User: What shape does this take?
Amino acid sequence: MPGIPGLVRRLVSVAPGSRFEGTAGSGGELWFVIAGRGRLDAGGLRGAAAGRDAGVWVPPGLGYRLDADAGVPGLLLDAVALPGGRRPVAASAAPQLAELRDCEVERTGDRRFRVLFGPGRDCPAATQFVGEIPPGRAPEHSHPYDELVLILGGEGVAHASGAQHPLAAGTCIHLPPGVLHCLENTGRDTLRVLGVFHPADSPAAKLAAPDAPGSVQRGVRSRLDARMRLWQAR
Assistant: This one.
């Protein structure tokens, strides 16, 4: 899949009985199992079951091996490599596996989300979450972080910079810091999204509107050329 400076997303397909292996980069990696089932060896994890809706944190420089189970449909994995920082995660950091069903449901307006990894959740560098958007459209807003979004299910429209872009399962979105946007659910079913953003924060964190009285966009560099970008996973 296409990459961007900073966060780099890959959609990895592992055939039944096959193996995905390698070494995490200098910033570590956040994975999410979209479909299928497998067994993970990484650090202290040996033969750990990784099935649908499981998240995985692979610390920087750690080798991994993921074996897709035989006799079932292949494993489909979203893997996002994080940018290396000036303060690398300690070498003793251990890999972690989180089940979406075990994560607390949080709300912002009428939208629900569950955070798998983030500050206080085994990954201080970035946040990984799954969000649920009901039919309808929220007001435009922006975030203080760099974000990648993958549509897991449902249909809708992404609004940004006066343009509209259709959304369906497999659509990937890059939202640079400070870009005004909103995701509208135009269907009858829930629009389900997977998000990863850096640096770590809450999915509910929003910047004040630029024209709001006394608003200050702290820590966000002006980027006149910043645009939302979309592509379709293959």
